[in-house]
């Protein structure tokens, strides 16, 4: 009975605290913002707290029904169809030319290094929060929130872009122009073509994801197998009908030089968005310590190989300057006289885009669910439906947001904004892995590790800016050499310390530390600097907006929640003390009565 009363009191306190944000006490909360920021921005959680205490805020648990092949299919399905069908035409025509496959190789290496970092975190902290949870446990609440907000922005924008591409390929499958199924309206350019098929697709997938994760995964598995076979058809047909002469006609393999090939790598990196959504399924995987490494790393490797072969087959079929920006593969087959194949490619690409959209929408809801558990957004977004085991509210909310953007916004507006958000988050995760391995696990002084990360980032920025602004070769040699020396010296000095903090033999970890995450940091910085100035301006505006939201809402919610939990702990402790006192009094009375009876 006492426990029930305590629960009612805690529930009442929670309700009161939640309402305080929006009513007269909110003004008082704003005056306390500096104090609360100091207390909460760097507040971290332990893995045990994240796995148990925080996860319980969702009510029901997510159901562990997925196996390693489900995870690999989710990773492949999430990536395939996005990069090749959305960005390849633009990168070939305006950046890399026939050497686009080299752009995919560079982006694939960066994605592989980042995926290793994600894999270690997901194995050791198997929760649905992905980068949000990893950074919150390592660098504190604000950094986790910053990463989570950027991941959500990346998901919503990329899903909207992919849904609009679905309309282009579907119309091509019926032999019509890419914009044939869109409705023109009198709005500014880039927002003036309403795409209702894209909206319908997003809403349909949202309802599917609300129903069950396992059924959605089986649907994705079937579509992914079909999609890989379909990719094989495009690769074989492209190589069969292609000519090596098209790779060097009219201006050679790299018509614009080496620099645009690397610039193109930052754009095609958009195609690797998806493997991180596999890490968000950690709460629903059976045997995560074995399934997660196979699923995440395996999906990145397979996708990289297919991307390179697909882009190469496209450039073999027709000269790069004749490739269309929209529905590139369909138009390429039609241009060589295979109109039927162009229609088949349009239909198959549409199906592949549905699979990648399904996986991305699966991942975005789990990110928002875990951010809701942390109370950085309204807690109703964290609720898991008890019968379906899915984050129902988060799925519905993000589905509506994605549909709204897909209705208006043109693909070109969001592509580079997506890339910079993705690269920033992957950069932070690589930093977090090094800090966790050497400081939290290895007990090294934090100042030494932070100095190493600072010098590494500084040398990566120096090399990247020397490349971007075409400085002399000595700048590239100086900063490139210093990067390698910094990593090598750090490894030499810190390996003995790391060895003292051995992991559990059953836990998977990144090999050859610190090289993979350090090179991931370098490549992510390098790819970021190749993006246009407008991308950084938009990213800066987004950063200001999410920081304001954190200062006006998130920090107050988490601060008050912490106070509530402290009151709850104190109350429970008082109850235990009171019960112990009562029991002791009863025992004393029994002893007294026993003495009296003996007398």
TrEMBL record:
<feature type="transmembrane region" description="Helical">
    <location>
        <begin position="449"/>
        <end position="467"/>
    </location>
</feature>
<dbReference type="InterPro" id="IPR029485">
    <property type="entry name" value="CAT_C"/>
</dbReference>
<feature type="transmembrane region" description="Helical">
    <location>
        <begin position="340"/>
        <end position="362"/>
    </location>
</feature>
<comment type="similarity">
    <text>Belongs to the amino acid-polyamine-organocation (APC) superfamily. Cationic amino acid transporter (CAT) (TC 2.A.3.3) family.</text>
</comment>
<dbReference type="InterPro" id="IPR002293">
    <property type="entry name" value="AA/rel_permease1"/>
</dbReference>
<feature type="transmembrane region" description="Helical">
    <location>
        <begin position="99"/>
        <end position="121"/>
    </location>
</feature>
<feature type="transmembrane region" description="Helical">
    <location>
        <begin position="539"/>
        <end position="556"/>
    </location>
</feature>
<protein>
    <submittedName>
        <fullName>Amino acid/polyamine transporter</fullName>
    </submittedName>
</protein>
<feature type="domain" description="Cationic amino acid transporter C-terminal">
    <location>
        <begin position="508"/>
        <end position="557"/>
    </location>
</feature>
<feature type="transmembrane region" description="Helical">
    <location>
        <begin position="505"/>
        <end position="527"/>
    </location>
</feature>
<dbReference type="Pfam" id="PF13520">
    <property type="entry name" value="AA_permease_2"/>
</dbReference>
<keyword id="KW-0812">Transmembrane</keyword>
<keyword id="KW-0472">Membrane</keyword>
<dbReference type="Pfam" id="PF13906">
    <property type="entry name" value="AA_permease_C"/>
</dbReference>
<feature type="transmembrane region" description="Helical">
    <location>
        <begin position="219"/>
        <end position="240"/>
    </location>
</feature>
<feature type="transmembrane region" description="Helical">
    <location>
        <begin position="396"/>
        <end position="429"/>
    </location>
</feature>
<feature type="transmembrane region" description="Helical">
    <location>
        <begin position="296"/>
        <end position="320"/>
    </location>
</feature>
<feature type="transmembrane region" description="Helical">
    <location>
        <begin position="473"/>
        <end position="493"/>
    </location>
</feature>
<feature type="transmembrane region" description="Helical">
    <location>
        <begin position="68"/>
        <end position="87"/>
    </location>
</feature>
<feature type="transmembrane region" description="Helical">
    <location>
        <begin position="194"/>
        <end position="212"/>
    </location>
</feature>
<dbReference type="GO" id="GO:0015171">
    <property type="term" value="F:amino acid transmembrane transporter activity"/>
</dbReference>
<dbReference type="GO" id="GO:0005886">
    <property type="term" value="C:plasma membrane"/>
</dbReference>
<keyword id="KW-1133">Transmembrane helix</keyword>
């Amino acid at each position: 009975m006492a426990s029930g009363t305590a629960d009612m009191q805690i529930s009442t306190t929670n309700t009161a605290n939640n309402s305080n944000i929006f009513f007269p006490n909110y003004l008082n909360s704003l005056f306390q913002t500096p104090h609360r920021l100091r207390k909460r921005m760097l507040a971290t959680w332990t893995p045990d707290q994240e796995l148990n205490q925080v996860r319980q805020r969702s009510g029901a648990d997510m159901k562990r029904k997925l196996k390693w092949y489900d995870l690999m299919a989710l990773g492949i399905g999430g990536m395939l169809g996005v990069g090749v069908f959305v960005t390849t035409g633009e990168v070939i025509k305006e950046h890399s030319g026939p050497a686009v496959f080299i752009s995919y190789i560079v982006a694939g290496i960066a994605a592989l290094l980042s995926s290793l970092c994600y894999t270690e975190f997901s194995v050791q902290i198997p929760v649905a929060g992905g980068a949000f949870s990893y950074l919150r446990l390592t660098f504190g609440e604000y950094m986790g929130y910053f990463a989570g907000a950027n991941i959500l922005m990346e998901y919503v924008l990329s899903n909207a872009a992919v849904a609009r591409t679905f309309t282009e390929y579907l119309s091509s499958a019926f032999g019509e122009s890419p914009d044939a199924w869109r409705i023109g309206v009198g709005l500014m350019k880039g927002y003036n073509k309403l795409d209702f098929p894209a909206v319908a697709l997003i809403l349909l997938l949202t309802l599917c994801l609300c129903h069950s994760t396992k059924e959605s995964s089986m649907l994705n598995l079937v579509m992914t197998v079909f999609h890989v076979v379909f990719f094989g058809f495009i690769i074989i047909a492209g190589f069969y009908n292609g000519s090596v002469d098209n790779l060097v006609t009219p201006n050679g393999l790299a018509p614009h030089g080496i620099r645009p090939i690397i610039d193109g790598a930052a754009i095609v990196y958009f195609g690797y968005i998806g493997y991180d959504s596999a890490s968000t399924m950690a709460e629903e995987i059976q045997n995560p310590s074995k399934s997660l490494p196979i699923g995440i790393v395996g999906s990145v490797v397979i996708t990289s190989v297919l991307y390179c072969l697909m882009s190469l087959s496209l450039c073999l079929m027709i000269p790069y300057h004749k490739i269309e920006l929209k529905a590139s593969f369909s138009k390429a087959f039609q241009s060589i006289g295979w109109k039927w194949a162009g229609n088949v490619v349009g239909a198959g690409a549409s199906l592949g885009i549905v699979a990648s959209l399904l996986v991305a929408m699966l991942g975005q809801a789990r990110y928002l669910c875990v951010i809701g558990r942390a109370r950085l957004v309204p807690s109703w977004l964290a609720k898991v439906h008890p019968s379906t085991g899915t984050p129902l509210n988060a799925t519905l909310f993000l589905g509506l947001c994605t549909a709204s953007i897909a209705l208006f916004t043109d693909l070109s507006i969001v592509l580079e904004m997506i890339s910079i958000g993705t690269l920033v988050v992957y950069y932070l995760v690589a930093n977090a892995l090094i800090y966790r391995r050497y400081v939290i696990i290895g007990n090294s002084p934090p100042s030494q590790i932070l100095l190493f990360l600072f010098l590494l980032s500084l040398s990566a920025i120096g090399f990247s800016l020397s490349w971007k602004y075409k400085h002399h070769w000595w700048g590239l040699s100086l900063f490139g050499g210093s990067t390698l020396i910094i990593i090598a010296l750090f490894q030499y000095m810190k390996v003995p310390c790391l060895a003292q903090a051995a992991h559990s033999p059953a836990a998977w970890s990144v090999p050859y530390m610190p090289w993979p995450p350090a090179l991931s940091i370098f490549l992510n910085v390098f790819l970021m600097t190749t993006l246009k100035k407008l991308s950084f301006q938009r990213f800066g505006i987004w950063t200001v907006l999410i920081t304001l939201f954190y200062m006006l809402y998130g920090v107050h919610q988490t601060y008050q929640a912490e106070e509530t939990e402290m009151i709850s702990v104190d109350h429970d402790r008082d109850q235990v003390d009171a019960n112990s006192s009562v029991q002791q009094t009863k025992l004393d009375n029994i002893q007294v009565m026993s003495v009296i009876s003996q007398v």
